[in-house]
Specification:
The protein contains six helices and four strands. The chain is mainly alpha-helical and 108 residues long.
């Protein structure tokens, strides 16, 4: 990643998550070289107030929509994911393994 600022690197990486895919806070932290900083990734995404950075595509390691409270309206995160073809039931991504985007495997 080109920046030395952790939050900027989070934003740059999250911007690369393809439509219809999700990743986890931990996968982002690990890719950025800070595997114990999943919460810091969450804090960075809480600061996002633009749709240019698809923060809705980042969930916890079990595929739960733990960040949904930081969106305008409690159902917006789920609606955005469903608009991209991701099935969410009871705040849980269905077929999480199939839609999971691992930056270590996807980015060379």
């Amino acid at each position: 990643m080109p920046s030395t600022n952790f939050f900027t690197n989070v934003y740059l990486l999250v911007s690369q998550i393809p439509i219809g895919r999700v990743t986890s806070y931990g996968a982002i932290a690990k890719y950025l070289g800070s595997p114990r900083s999943a919460r810091m990734v969450g804090w960075a995404l809480n600061k996002v107030n633009t749709m240019e950075i698809p923060a809705h595509r980042v969930v916890n390691k079990q595929g739960l929509l733990t960040g949904k409270y930081h969106f305008d309206g409690i159902t917006l995160m789920q609606q955005l994911l469903e608009n991209e073809g991701i099935v969410v039931i009871d705040n849980q991504i269905q077929e999480f393994g199939k839609v999971f985007w691992d930056p270590h495997k996807e980015l060379l």
